[in-house]
Amino acid sequence: MGGMRPASFGAEPTGDRMERILRSPNYDPEAGAFRNPVPAGITPQPGGGTRGEMIRALLRRDGRKPAGPVPVQRPDLSEPPAGGLRLTWLGHATVLAEIDGRRVLFDPVFGERCSPFSFAGPRRFHRVPLPLAELGPLDAVVISHDHYDHLDMSTVRELRKAVAGDAVFAVPLGVGAHLERWGVPQDRIEELDWHESAEVAGLTLTATPARHFCGRGIRNKQRTLWASWSVRGPEHRVFHSGDTGYFPGFADIGADHGPFDAAMVQIGAYSEFWPDIHMTPEEGVQAHLDLRGGVLLPIHWGTFNLAPHRWEEPAERTAAAAGPAGVRTAIPRPGEPFEPSAETLPTTPWWQEIAAPERRAQPGGGRQAPAKPSPAER
Fold first, then answer.
1. C-alpha dihedral over 169, 143, 231, 269, to 10 degrees?
2. Considering the chain, what is the average pLDDT of its residues?
3. Residue 230's beta-bridge partner residues?
4. Which of 112, 179, 190, 223 has the most CB atoms at less than 10 Å from its CB?
């Protein structure tokens, strides 16, 4: 399986898996690709600059990494959360959610680089707060899509071998082909289309729409799906956005699966060069409002250099937008656990102490938030 493709590239869906993809209402057989809920471009868009401008912006280094060590906290998870729900951001989009006595790990990337190669590609700004071997048993591993900063081969292989309790891997359609190539047994994979659910250890995991794309190879076919996720326990509900552009469907997700006690929302790696597939911080706050998201945990920032904005900018802009919108927001240090029900959330602007000294704006740094869609637009 996979032919001569490097193992890190994963595998293309085949057989029964491909037949299921072809039956999906979200797959366009003529285009040979999954379709977005709202059309999205993955190349420079009108008004977003030329390809040459995009490359020049990405090559600029001013402000793109922290000026000092990122303060990482080793989490103490020895006692269960008092309120039944605790979130621990481990960097980028990786979050451990302890929910109603169950443990769910979202988008685990514990490798040094988000890349198919160990010697090249974006490298971590900070160490992993807790080694995988010390993470403890998991009930579910939830993966939003197959990009390298969300799905890491070395991490999956470690989880496959080390995690007690035979954790279930919940993934969007087609992504199971990668996992099987890396040795995850088929009976530990729940592969879902949008709006499908799986019951795992008393939790309901539901794949919900997102506006993004997929791919691990140079000539990748768009045959694996991308998703956001709703996780519902007996007492609590959480949402993880994965990667997504802003779209009116967040309100539908909130109506169908919310209100949430907490929402983990992508607010980093945005640019005017790819406005359809990653949200700006202001859009992330708006999406959170649409979702009825409870406490906002900003994710997808602070760990890898993936866009031409300043390193600390996503946190600064999220905090600035959330306050006037009345959104309770937690912006913890990597590895700092918190309970959404707590009276006080981690809000100390720790990132300001290590912000790069260069403060000038860079091209391609994002846009303002869109107006909130009217009920008719939803």
1. 170
2. 89
3. 206, 239
4. 179
**Superfamily for the 7-354 domain:** Ribonuclease Z/Hydroxyacylglutathione hydrolase-like (3.60.15.10)
DSSP β-bridge partners for residue 89 = 95
* Greatest pairwise CA separation for the chain in angstroms: 54
Burial class (CB in 10 A: 0-12, 13-18, 19+), 1: exposed
- The DSSP secondary-structure symbol of 287 reads H
Single-letter code of the amino acid located at 131? P
In sequence order, the β-bridge partners of residue 142 are 106, 170
The partner residues of 91 in beta bridges, in order of sequence, read 94
Q: Where are the domains of the chain?
A: 7-354
| Closest by Cα among 236, 204, 296 to 101 | 236
Contact 211, 37 (CB under 8 A): yes
Residue 190 — φ and ψ, nearest 5°? Answer: -110, 115
Weakly modelled stretches of the chain, pLDDT under 70: 1-4, 42-61, 162-165, 218-220, 358-378
pLDDT at 64: 76
Supply the DSSP symbol for 329.
Answer: B
Is 151 buried (19+), middle (13-18) or exposed (0-12) by CB count in 10 A? buried
Tokens of 146: 């197959």
Q: Which residues pair with 363 in a beta bridge?
A: none
Sheet-wide strand order for 168-172: 85-91, 94-99, 102-106, 140-142, 168-172, 189-192
Closest CA to 329 of 307, 311, 348, 353: 348
- Quote the strand ranges of 241-299, DSSP E: 262-266, 295-299
Tell me how crowded residue 3 is: count the other CB atoms within 10 A of its CB.
6
